[in-house]
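Usage example:
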Amino acid sequence: MEQGKRHLAGLFPEEIESQLDGVPAFRARQIFTWLHKHAVGSFRHMHNLPQDLIKLLEEVYQQVWPLELVTTRVSTDGTEKYLFALSDGGAVETVLLPEEDRQTLCISTQVGCAMNCSFCATGRSGYERNLTAGEIVAQVLYVQHRLRAEGKTLSNIVYMGMGEPLANYEAVLKSARLLNHPLGLNLGARRLTISTCGLAPQIRDLAEEDLQINLAVSLHAVEDGYRSEIMPINKRYPLGELLAACDYYTQRTNRRISYEYALISGFNDHPQHAEELGKLLQGRLCHVNLIPINPVGKEERPTAQRIAAFAQVLERMRIPVSIRKERGTDIEAACGQLRQRSLEGWS
Ligand code: SAH
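Running the assembly step on the lines above writes:
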C-alpha cells in the first residue's frame, strides 16, 4: 500500500458521496452499508452496485481497508491476537476476546504510546503516530468480516489496545460514531468503552459529546506521589483534577465509570490501599476493575489470596468490584503486553 492512499473506511456516507464526485447519495449509502454493516472484504462483493462503479472503486482505492493482516496468534484460552500492517510500515495489534455470549474486540488507537506508564509494554516502545479513524474502524471491520464467516458478530468494542485514545481524540470519536452509525454496524454507544490514563480536559470534552460511551479510567494508585511514580501523566493532571473531570462525566452522562486498578505486589496491593481506594470512590457511580499486573519489567503480581483480600475490602465498603479474568498471556495479548510498532520482531 502506498502511504497516504485514500480509503473509504473512515468516512460517513455523506463524505463518501463528496469524495466520489458525481456518485448519487443512495450509492454512497450502499457503499457505506457494504463496508460497515456487511463488512465485505472486497469491492466485488458489493453486489447491488453497477459494474462500472465497482471498477472505479477498485481503481481509486484498490483495497477496502487501510491495513493488511500480517498474521494472527491464538491463545489456549481462545483469545486471538491480530497483527496489522499499516500503509507506512507501522503496525498495530488487535485482540479478540471470544466468550459464549459476547465477542469483545480490543482495538488500538495509536502506533506506540507517548504516556510512558512504567508498567506498560506499549509505552516502553515509544510513540510513533496517531491512527486515522479509518485505521481504527478497519480493525473492527476486518475481524467482523472473519467472524461473519463463522456466523458470529462483534458485540463489544474496547479502546484498550495500543495507545492513549483521548490523545487521539478526533479520530477516536469519529470511529465511535462510525461504529454507532445506523447504516453500519450500529453498535450502541453503551457497547463501546474508551479507556484513558486520565486526560482530564478530554474527559470533559467527551462528556459533552452526547454519546453514552462507557468510560474506563486507569487509576492504579490513589495518592499523587505514588501515581506519578508509575504514570507520568499524573504530574499534568493530578488525582483531584482527574476525579473532578470524572464526576463531570457522570453528571452529564449518568454513566457508571469503570476504574482500572492494576495490582502490583508490594506497591499498591496492601489492604490499606484498598481502603483508601474505597474512601476515594465512595459516593461515586463507579465500578472497580482489578487487573493483576502482567509484568513487563520488575513488577510482580500479587498472590491470588492477596488479590482476593484487596477485593474484599472494597466489597465490604460496598464498592462494586471485579477481578479481571486473565486472558491471552501466552500469546502476549493480555493488558499491557502489546508492543508492536513495526513489522520487525514479530514472532
Ligand atoms: N491508554 C489507555 C488504554 C490502554 S491500556 C489507558 O491507559 O487506559 C488498557 C489498560 O491496561 C489500562 O488500564 C492500563 O493501565 C492497563 N495496563 C497497562 N499495562 C499493564 C500491565 N502490564 N498489566 C496489567 N494492566 C496493564
